[in-house]
């Protein structure tokens, strides 16, 4: 039984984590970075570009996971804990897919992917755009909670239970 995630899964996890944190930070820290990015428009160009990158990385993560699976680290835990872990991961993956899509859908202007490629907005009704925008703005709070919970539970496993769950997602030490 494998007790670690594959190197590809570990790399994709941590790359996604860093990009998610950067994406979350950008709208809140725009005063700090707007000058470097050519103004507020540049902040949101980067925010949207990172969001779409997260979408692609999440699809890739799911493909890699379908090939490599996941270690059976919680086999000795209570059924409710295993179910809670599965549910938490499912909601995290759904948000990593739906947040970028909803952000893309509510915009009326083309999205510039890293200032290189322009993606035209879809022809949606005002109601559909409003729904996508409301989902995006509301779901960010659920994402905040899940990220904090995910990190907190990983630390609880590492420091309290000492069961190797966090070590399974850390790069190997040589």
TrEMBL record:
Annotated transmembrane regions: 12-30, 42-64, 90-107, 141-159
Keyword Metal-binding: yes
Keywords: Cell membrane, Electron transport, Heme, Iron, Membrane, Metal-binding, Transmembrane, Transmembrane helix, Transport
Subcellular location: Cell membrane
Entry membrane topology: Multi-pass membrane protein
Domain annotation Cytochrome b561 bacterial/Ni-hydrogenase: ranges: 4-171
Coiled coil: none
UniProt-listed InterPro entries: Cyt_b561_bac/Ni-Hgenase (IPR011577), Cytochrome_b561_oxidase (IPR052168), Di-haem_cyt_TM (IPR016174)
Electron transport listed as a keyword: yes
Cofactor dependence: heme b
Family matches, as Pfam families: Ni_hydr_CYTB
Family: Belongs to the cytochrome b561 family.
PANTHER family in the cross-refs: CYTOCHROME B561, CYTOCHROME B561 BACTERIAL_NI-HYDROGENASE DOMAIN-CONTAINING PROTEIN
UniProt-recorded name of the protein: Cytochrome b/b6 domain-containing protein
Species of provenance: Phytopseudomonas seleniipraecipitans
């Amino acid at each position: 039984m494998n007790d670690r995630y594959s190197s590809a899964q570990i790399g994709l996890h941590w790359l996604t984590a860093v990009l998610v944190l950067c994406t979350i930070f950008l709208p809140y820290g725009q005063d700090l970075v707007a000058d470097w990015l050519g103004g507020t428009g540049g902040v949101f160009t980067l925010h949207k570009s990172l969001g779409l990158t997260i979408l692609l990385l999440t699809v890739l993560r799911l493909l890699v996971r379908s090939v490599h699976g996941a270690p059976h680290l919680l086999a000795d835990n209570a059924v409710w804990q295993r179910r809670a872990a599965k549910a938490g991961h499912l909601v995290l993956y759904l948000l990593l897919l739906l947040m970028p899509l909803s952000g893309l859908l509510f915009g009326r202007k083309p999205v510039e992917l890293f200032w290189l490629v322009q993606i035209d907005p879809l022809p949606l009704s005002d109601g559909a755009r409003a729904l996508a925008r409301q989902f995006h703005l509301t779901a960010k709070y659920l994402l905040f909670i899940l990220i904090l919970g995910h990190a907190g539970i990983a630390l609880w496993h590492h420091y309290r239970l000492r069961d190797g769950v966090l070590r399974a997602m850390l790069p190997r030490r040589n």
